[in-house]
Specification:
Elements (H helix, E strand, L loop, with lengths): L9 H22 L2 H16 L1 H12 L13 H14 L3 H20 L8 H22 L9 H26 L24 H18 L10
Helix pairs in contact: 1-2, 1-6, 2-4, 2-6, 3-6, 4-5, 4-6, 5-6, 5-7, 5-8, 7-8
Amino acid sequence: MSPSFEPFSRDHLQILLIGFAGIAAVLFCGRRGGGLEKATTRCLAWINLTAWPVSLFAIWWQGGETEIDHFLPFHLCDIAAVTAGLALLTKTPVFRSLTYFWGLAGTIQGLVTPAISETGPVFVSFFLQHFTIVAAALYLPIVLGWRPRHPLWKAVGEVLAWSVAYLVFAIVVNAITGGNFAYVSHPPENPSLLDHLGPWPWYVFSMLGLAMVFYSLLWLPFVRSKPAP
């Protein structure tokens, strides 16, 4: 059996340092422009788009994780990985907006408080997926020059509406499959921010309120910039 992974441990800090150093390298390559930028953009896009099949292969290789949550791509980060890949390959505004806001408001939470206890292939695929989503979220404004919609209420309102739609979808899927997508059925076993947002089901509403705050803060760096065309 593989040794267990403990959040907030020295190993966790090391993987965060390595991952964010990797993100910095991706941004550096993208900023170089020319052929290197094109290659970096496509590589980052396809890593995001193949994140779910890679995670399935990791589960099969490791021979564990029988819960339905690990076999259906309905966690927010699974969907965010798809939007990230499409945002990099296309100029679709909604994909770019969701990637930026979901990636920096949501996926980073998964890195800081990872809902994982395994090491090995599952560990690698989990962190690779999360780091590449965050990399794409930063790549869009820093390398590709994307900017959110103006004014604030339009940008935040759009992504909040999609977030509510996702939560409703997750609730329906959970009722059918018995899963815990979006963690709306119960908080993850590992310590997380949800532990401080009240009891179930009230923490779901707290999540939406906190998401709106995070989305608004993420919009503020662009308050003086021109909106995305």
